[in-house]
From TrEMBL:
EC number(s) from the headed UniProt entry: 2.1.1.364
Official protein name in the record: [histone H3]-lysine(4) N-methyltransferase
Record SMART domains: FYRN
Gene3D superfamilies tied to this protein: 3.30.160.360, Zinc/RING finger domain, C3HC4 (zinc finger)
A matching Pfam family: zf-HC5HC2H_2
Length: 400
């Protein structure tokens, strides 16, 4: 019988076989456990610890009866490498054959010897190299874009496209030329003949509101009011974005409101720096890009009429590929013969259109259309202008 060791908080107690023999004399005082077919669990012993010394009484430990365990299968004996091992079991049980792969020889004398042997390289090995960048002392000024462009022109290695013509269109609100930044004034929208407004300059005006279809209403009303209002930031006319605080008269251009650090909200309201809340706000709007379809609602018929009624036309009116040049005129004696139930044919009308060529299937050319008078009737003339060919003139008495 082996010795038993109990451990309790760094205190070890050794009980030998002689102590167990002495305990066997008091078997009558110790009740024996009943036998059961199920696996029996040893009863729980209550331990009390005080000053790292166990108060467990060895004489009170019950002695468990030896339980006969079912015969276990014999252990598998592994043969040496490169051989197959067979497990001998009972004739009724299944025989198992285990094949083992050979292991690398290792000497277990130390931890370093257990590591796999290093590979032996044949031929050239990889070489490591490092780069050393020497920065001269003193201030170094990087070249600007103009200097780089001049250097590339001297080398002649790149082809620079032609510069984009400058956009001279001016916003009626903020007086800035050309399209603005996407996260700023945004693109220019046509308000009237030669009148343009930035999208956000019009959208953030107090009177203007947007319909579900994307039309901006009351832009002209906001423009008339802005001509009399002075911006609090730049002190110029055209300011239409006012503070929504009650009795606050501060008004700004949209671009000036951003520069003055006004606070914009998602419900299309704005507060000046004097009345905006401190810190961040849940409904604050920090991105002004508009990618949806937005246009200014206007009377197109009145706009076209204003173009036609002007004596000296300095503007080009274009619809798709049709460019309008002159409207022409009709005298009282010509009214009866120069019209139909659907159209008028004024003498002197002129327009040009870019359309597919009659000579080449994959080219386009210019068709100059005009109306003349011949024998008291309209004469429709089409002049085909195509590069590399002489002008072709086609005439007929009907527009078809």
């Amino acid at each position: 019988m082996k010795d038993i060791v109990f451990c309790s908080n760094n205190c070890f107690v050794l009980y030998s076989a002689a102590v167990q023999a002495k305990n066997s004399e008091n078997k009558e005082a110790v009740p024996s456990l009943p036998q059961s077919p199920m696996k029996e669990r040893p009863p729980k012993a209550f331990h009390q610890y005080s000053n790292n010394i166990s108060t467990l009484d060895v004489h009170c430990l019950p002695q468990l009866q030896e339980k006969v365990s079912p015969p276990s299968s014999p252990p598998i004996m592994f043969p040496p490498a490169f051989e197959a091992a067979k497990v001998e079991a009972k004739p009724d049980e299944l025989k198992v054959t285990v094949k083992l792969k050979p292991r690398l020889k290792a000497i277990h004398s130390s931890l370093d010897d257990c590591r796999p042997p290093s590979k032996k390289w044949k031929g050239m090995k990889w070489k490591k190299w490092s780069i050393q960048i020497v920065i001269p002392k003193g201030s170094f000024k990087p070249p600007c874009e103009e200097e780089i462009d001049e250097f590339l022109k001297k080398l002649g290695t790149t082809l620079k496209p032609d510069p984009v013509p400058k956009d001279y269109r001016k916003c009626c609100f903020c007086h800035e030329e050309g399209d603005g930044l996407t996260d700023g004034p945004a693109r220019l929208l046509n308000l009237d003949l030669d009148l343009w407004v930035h999208l956000n300059c019009a959208l953030w005006s107090t009177e203007v509101y947007e319909t579900q279809a994307g039309a901006l209403i009351n832009v002209e009303l906001a423009l008339r009011r802005g001509l009399q209002m002075k911006c609090m930031f730049c002190h110029k006319m055209g300011a239409t974005s006012g503070c929504h605080r009650l009795r606050c008269t501060n008004i700004y251009h949209f671009t000036c409101a951003i520069k003055a650090q006004c606070m914009f909200f998602k419900d299309k309201t704005m507060l000046c720096p004097m009345h905006k809340p401190k810190g961040t706000h849940e409904q604050e709007l920090s991105y002004f890009a508009v990618f949806r379809r937005v246009y200014v609602q206007r009377d197109e018929v009145r706009q076209i009429a204003s173009i036609v009624q002007r004596g000296e036309r300095d503007h080009t009116f274009r619809v798709g590929s049709l460019i309008f040049h002159a409207v022409g005129q009709l005298l009282p004696q010509q009214m009866q013969a120069f019209h139909s139930s659907k159209a008028l044919f004024p003498v002197g009308y002129e327009a040009s259109r870019l359309y597919w060529s009659m000579r080449y299937a994959n080219r386009r050319c210019r068709y100059l259309c005009s109306i003349e008078e011949k024998d008291g009737l309209p004469l429709f003339v089409i002049k085909v202008v195509e590069q590399g060919h002489e002008d072709l003139v086609l005439t007929d008495t009907t527009p078809k």
